[in-house]
Specification:
This protein is mostly helical. The chain has a single domain, classed as Na+/H+ antiporter like fold. Helices cover 79% and strands 0% of the residues. It is globular.
Length: 307
């Protein structure tokens, strides 16, 4: 089966499942909050710690791909911050726009890379994943701490957010275990992986439950611009950065897929927990996923012409 279908269709199915459950009243309105907290504080750390712990940060192709991806995210994020005075959105909405342009769905990226580039590509993808996770999460925590509703907005709020944010600590713990060469400890590693397996489906179901098509339709320009940046500008920038640094054909292909991946379901959970515009964030996740379904095969076709 086509790798794009394998990667993208399940995302839409789970988003639709969450929306359907919410519309049908499967849980009472107040019941979704505890589910979000469980996903944010338990399932996502269960995914992040072993991902960082087991990542292989060696290898020229992997190194160039990872550095190019990080530099591209920093460039787009930097322009996003510089454009803040020109963006006529309130703080929470701006924070969701910022998350939308730099965060990406590794759960779409990884299966596409595995299907297109095989095990060798997957090894490169793991390094890209390991480097981008802490960078994007740190940037988003800073922006949400500054402009999220009820976050205070000052450096004290940012520092407090870092101290209590489970995503940041998960990255720190996993990276520390990796750099200290601590071997994966069974059954701890297996237990974390088992917990982490719930992160993708739960994150997408929660994002689907937060979808507001009427709200998304009321913000077509905002969501449209975020989608263009995420699935067109970002992949072309990552691809160009790898070529500039002399990266291999494999490194170019992996980073191209990375850049074109849709917005992360985790963005919605973080927006809910840290005062972002959650309905806007859910719309961005849905529309960037639709955009990636078109752009990933198109960009891979263009990439194949360069071989």
């Amino acid at each position: 089966m086509n790798p794009i279908i394998l990667g993208v269709v399940p995302v839409f199915v789970l988003l639709a499942l969450g929306w359907t459950l919410k519309m049908r009243g499967f849980l009472p309105e107040e019941g979704w909050g505890p589910v979000e907290r469980l996903t944010y504080f338990v399932f996502y750390p269960g995914f992040l710690i072993p991902t960082m712990w087991g990542a292989d940060f060696t290898g020229a192709a992997a190194g160039i791909a990872g550095v190019s991806a990080v530099v591209s995210v920093l460039i787009v994020g930097g322009f996003g911050l510089l454009a803040k005075p020109l963006i006529t959105l309130n703080g929470p909405s701006y924070s969701s726009v910022f998350q939308g342009i730099i965060r990406w769905n590794g759960f779409v990226f990884i299966p596409v890379v595995r299907a297109v580039f095989g095990q060798e590509g997957l090894a490169v993808a793991a390094v890209v994943l390991g480097l981008l996770i802490p960078v994007t999460n740190v940037l988003c925590v800073v922006v949400l701490s500054r402009w999220g509703e009820g976050q205070g907005g000052g450096w004290t709020a940012i520092g407090r957010a870092f101290l209590v944010n489970p995503i940041i600590w998960s990255c720190i713990i996993g990276l520390s275990l990796n750099l200290l060469h601590v071997p994966p400890l069974e059954p701890l590693y297996a237990t974390l992986n088992l917990i982490g397996d719930a992160a993708l489906p739960m994150g997408l179901v929660i994002a689907g439950a937060g979808l507001s098509f009427r709200y998304a339709a009321s913000r077509p320009v905002t969501i449209g611009l975020v989608t263009v940046v995420k699935v067109i500008v970002m992949p072309l920038l990552m691809w160009g950065m790898v070529k500039l640094l002399g990266g291999s054909h494999l490194a170019q292909g992996v980073t191209l897929c990375c850049g074109a991946a849709p917005g992360a379901a985790a963005s919605y959970v973080m927006a809910r927990q840290m005062g972002g515009d959650a309905p806007l964030m859910a719309g961005v996740v849905a529309f960037t996923t639709a955009g990636s379904a078109v752009m990933i095969p198109l960009l891979l076709w263009l990439f194949s012409l360069t071989t």
